[in-house]
Amino acid sequence: MSNDNENLPPEALIVGPTPEGLARFTPEQMVNCDACLRANPPTRIQCMYCGRALPLNSAAYDLKKPDLRPLENWEQGYNNILKSLTATNLSDDAEAAAADLLKLDKTVLARLISSNHCLPVARAATRDESTLVQTRLSALGIDTEIIADVNLAESGAPFRVRAVDLNDASLKLYERHGAQPVEISWDQISLLVVGRLTIQRVESREESARRKENRILDASEFFSDETIFDFYTADRRPFRIMSKSFDFSCLGARKGLVAEENMSRLLDLFKEKARHATWDEAYNSLSKTLEAIWPLERSEQSAGWRRDRPGKLTKGNVSQSSNERQFQKYSSLRHLLRLRVHPGT
Q1: What is the DSSP letter of 211?
Q2: In what order do the strands lie in the sheet with 78-82?
Q3: Model confidence pLDDT, tens digit, residues 236-292
Q4: Strand ranges of the sheet holding 163-166, from the earlier edge strand across to the other edge
Q5: Degrees (nearest 5) of the Cα angle 2, 53, 132?
């Protein structure tokens, strides 16, 4: 026989005084999941059993709290973007309440608000959760707008430029050797976003042993860092140039021996020719702060097993972190917000 209370979480079954820090809700306040029919605390956005979004009702809405769990790499979320920069005069109590709501350190929230950029302050799994964040922040004096990850990706994957032929009026962009170039004029370039791409890779090998923890035999760490910039026109996907995969022959006599020096000279050339473009070079100073909302992309994979000697097996592991996806989101956000102000450019 089933237990009449099997669908009630522990909060609803407390008898007597409620332990400190643990909320207590009556059966009438509980919210039933439409998918699995189990009762959930009214503070939840998603079902604690099956993960489905819970129905919103006015009686429980004021009790709900956003979960704001870290999303997987494959998940498409919803971003709460600072809509205005008028929240710099927040009271200490309001700032503390906002930081608690967003699950952010107060110093991180303060840097996001005082950056003079419209940056994300939260990334939620569902639009309902993002709307709840927007409502709660608005009550504290922080206005945000919701921009979905799919909207940030509307421009498509960047056109990775490997080489350029240029003159005073236009430039031809090559994605690979022998491919047909894309030609644009300097006046078509409306926005350039500059940053640095950093990749950290750790390779390790551990010995498999019975009845005890595996022992790490050796580990190697590799770090790469290069300048990267995106530039946009009104009617095309973004173009991307990366210093380690670009042919700087277009610089002619200005070309040097070091890729980073050549990248600096190329940027100077773009500044000289693309006179109508907006420049954004703030990413490098904001990237560490953005990690609280848009974390680095991390991956783990096995490098396989190897028999070093009879009875001894070793396993290789490779872990990598990269900020390329974070830069992509920042760059797309800058482009999207610029189109709101200057449509068609």
Answers
A1: T
A2: 120-124, 78-82, 144-148
A3: 789 999 999 999 999 999 999 999 999 999 999 999 999 999 999 999 999 999 999
A4: 163-166, 170-174, 182-185
A5: 130
Amino acid symbol at 288: K
User: What are the CA-CA distances from residue 188 to residues 166, 175, 232 (Å)?
Assistant: 14, 19, 8
Phi, psi of 253 (to 5 degrees): -65, -20
Element holding 126 (H helix, E strand): none
Residue type, 126: T
Query: CA-CA distance, 247 to 253, in Å (whole number)?
Result: 14
Q: Find out whether 322 and 201 touch, Cβ atoms under 8 Å.
A: no
The Cβ of residue 41 has, within 10 Å, a number of other Cβ atoms equal to 22
- In the block, residue with structure tokens 């200005």: 254
- Residue 230 one-letter amino acid: D
**Closest of 260, 223, 237 to residue 160, by C-alpha:** 237
User: How do residues 311-324 score in pLDDT, each as one tens digit?
Assistant: 677 888 899 999 99
| pLDDT reported for residue 210 | 62
Phi and psi, residue 31, nearest 5°: -115, 125
SS3 251: helix
Angle of CA points 170, 174, 178, to nearest 5°? 130
The two tokens of residue 238 are 């973004």
List the structure tokens of 39: 């009762």
Give the global pTM.
Answer: 0.81
Q: Which of 77, 136, 71, 131 is nearest to 102 (CA)?
A: 136
Could you tell me which residues are beta bridge partners of residue 183?
172
Considering only CA atoms, which of 263, 230, 242 is closest in space to residue 199?
Answer: 242
Q: Which residues lie closer than 8 Å to 147 by C-beta, 6 or more apart?
A: 78, 79, 81, 333, 336
60-72 burial: b if 16+ Cβ within 10 Å, else e? beeebbbbbeebe
Cβ pair 126, 296 in contact under 8 A: no
